[in-house]
Design brief:
With about 230 residues, this protein is an all-alpha fold. It has helices at about 5-15, 60-70, 85-95, 105-120, 125-135, 160, 175-190, 195-205, 210-225.
Length: about 230
């Protein structure tokens, strides 16, 4: 079953529970303007996830291969002028949602440009990636969870060892987004488009719907774009 914010809203309003590789390329640091957040401006991440950690006992070989290919590819900065209406809309929303974390308009636009490019390369809705970041880190690039997940999309460091790239900095915005979007897109493909199960896999909570509901609620309430 495929999930969407509108479907989530229908289920939520009626009291029903939320129904329960890849084309990404690694962006080189500096492809866009640097992203600067105020590290003390927003609260600690509220998610208790072991994010981007598979529910399986061992990482999927297919996912390891997808990450390795993504990071070995030639850097691509994306289209700086892509989706300008989207960028302007979302920077206004981010300013309202996290007014202290990103007080500078240009920093917001730079961050959102990164997010949009990475999401599109992984064939993910950019708004869904925004919702996941909102839940995971409150848009704090230096966020760390109690179990060690790092950065905007709260990626677990073990992935670096799995693909032989210990030098990667998961607090770097471009690197973190490339890892996170690649992992999420793999799980979405594995689950045949079922957002509930894909998000639960990303969070390491397959079989439970609390985390998917949090992300879908953030998507619906703060980041949804009607098309």
């Amino acid at each position: 079953m495929r999930s969407s914010p509108s479907a989530w809203a229908d289920h939520h309003l009626t009291g029903r529970a939320l129904a329960g590789a890849l084309a990404a390329l690694l962006l080189a640091a500096g492809a866009f303007l640097p992203v600067t957040a105020n590290p003390a401006a927003t609260p600690q991440p509220q998610s208790d996830s072991i994010s981007a950690l598979a529910a399986d006992t061992a990482p999927s070989p297919a996912l390891i291969e997808a990450l390795a290919q993504a990071m070995a590819a030639e850097p691509d900065g994306g289209d700086r002028f892509d989706a300008q209406v989207w960028l302007l809309d979302m920077q206004s929303r981010l300013a309202r949602r996290q007014p202290q974390a990103y007080p500078d308009r240009q920093a917001r636009l730079s961050l959102l440009q990164r997010i949009h490019a990475e999401a599109r390369r992984a064939a993910l809705p950019p708004e869904l990636v925004l919702a996941l970041i909102d839940v995971e880190s409150r848009f704090r690039p230096a966020a760390r969870s109690p179990v060690g997940a790092r950065g905007l999309m709260q990626v677990m460091p073990f992935w670096k060892a799995e693909i032989g790239r210990p030098q990667d900095d998961l607090e770097d915005v471009a690197t973190n987004l490339r890892y996170g979007c690649t992992i999420l897109a793999h799980y979405l493909s594995r689950e045949n488009g079922d957002w509930t199960r894909a998000l639960a896999r990303y969070n390491g909570s397959l079989g439970r719907t609390t985390y998917p509901e949090q992300v879908m609620a953030a998507w619906y309430h703060y980041w949804w774009v009607k098309r």
